[in-house]
Amino acid sequence: MANSRRFLSRAFLFTALTSAPLLGQQVNPYFGTTSTSTYSIGPCDAVPTDSFQPYFIDSHCAYVSELETPGSAHVGFPVHLPTGALITSITTHYFDNSVDMNPIVSFSAVDNAGTIAITVALVPSAPFSGGLNSITVDLVPPLQVDNLARSYGIEAALLSEGVAFRTSIYKFDVNYHLQVSPAPGTATFTDVAPGDFGFQFIEALYASGITAGCSPTTFCPNNPLTRVQMAVFLAKALGLHWPN
Predict the structure, then answer these.
(1) Are 170 and 180 in contact (CB under 8 A)?
(2) How much is the mean pLDDT over the chain?
(3) Contacts by 118-125 with C-beta closer than 8 Å and gap 24+?
(4) Fewer CB atoms < 10 Å away: N or C end of the chain?
(5) In whole angstroms, what separates CA 21 from the centre of its chain?
(6) What are 109's strand-pairing partners?
(7) 207 with 183: CB under 8 angstroms?
(8) Residue 131: exposed, middle, or buried by beta-carbon count in 10 A (0-12, 13-18, 19+)?
(9) Strand, helix or coil at 205?
(10) Average pLDDT over residues 165-179
(11) Could you tell me if residue 32 is left (phi over 0), alpha (psi between -120 and 50 degrees) or otherwise beta?
């Protein structure tokens, strides 16, 4: 199987990460900056990254696997997260029933020039042949998402020695924290100076369109908040929307 363990080309990986649709699911999208949110990516999110070997996706999207022929299939899983999110860890759920085979899995960040800027191995090279397995890899330090400069995705080489021995991917859990954007160098409002306790947070509200202040130049930080103002803040911040 050594000859089948090829690395994906940068061109294939860049094309897969930038052209794939958004299909992943938020399984516990907590709000706030301390709770962990999880973005789960399943087999039906897989996209081909080369044309050398076909792969098989279960009809219920339970797993993606190499076909029943010796070789390897290379697939990509795009990762779509908000700009500024901090990716803290990634859990790989996979199947392996041969000590000679492990899925070769890595997380990559690709810049706009198609260069792989960051690569993190998600499955260790030690043999595993116990069937279902889950492995969590911490990103140290956490990786901050920058969607303007990079695209993100997981790549996997699914190996097979025929009908009896194969590797499969069940899903990936990308765990992350949200964070408030850094404060700008200059103040938007004359009554909220850069040294004030709430400066970073008020500027974040303004930059995201949640508030425009109480006048074009002031925020009125010590004024009481009415219920209608609170409703505006919360509805804009959470992006509340539903069909009529």
Answers:
(1) no
(2) 82
(3) 118/143, 120/90, 122/90, 122/92, 122/154, 122/172, 123/92, 123/94
(4) C
(5) 13
(6) 118, 152
(7) no
(8) exposed
(9) helix
(10) 88
(11) left
In the numeric block, the tokens 């199947």 are attached to: 95
Query: Is the pTM above the cut of 0.85?
Result: no
DSSP code per residue over 20-67: -----EESS---SSSSPEEEEE-GGG-EES-SSS-EEE-TTSS-EEE-
Distance CA 71, CA 79 (A): 26
Query: Residues 43, 158: one domain?
Result: yes
What gap in Å lies between CA 122 and CA 128, rounded to an integer?
Answer: 14
10 membership: H or E segment, kind and range: helix 10-19
| Backbone phi and psi for residue 11, each to the nearest 5 degrees, phi listed first | -65, -45
Contact present, 89 and 136 (Cβ < 8 Å) = yes
The region of weakest confidence among 23-32, 174-183, 228-237 is: 23-32
Same domain, 162 and 211: no
Domain boundary among 142, 177, 212: 177
| pLDDT of 131 over the 90 cut | no
Q: Both tokens of residue 155?
A: 């790549």
Provide the 10 A C-beta neighbour count for residue 156. Answer: 28
Opening angle at CA 90, ends 85 and 95, nearest 5: 155
Structural domain boundaries enclosing 143? 2-177
The tokens for 201 are: 């947070």
Element (H, E) at 227: helix 227-238
Domain boundary among 121, 146, 177: 177
Instruction: Return the SS3 of 214.
Output: coil
| DSSP-derived 3-state class of residue 238 | helix
Claim to verify: residue 193 and residue 244 sit in the same structural domain: yes
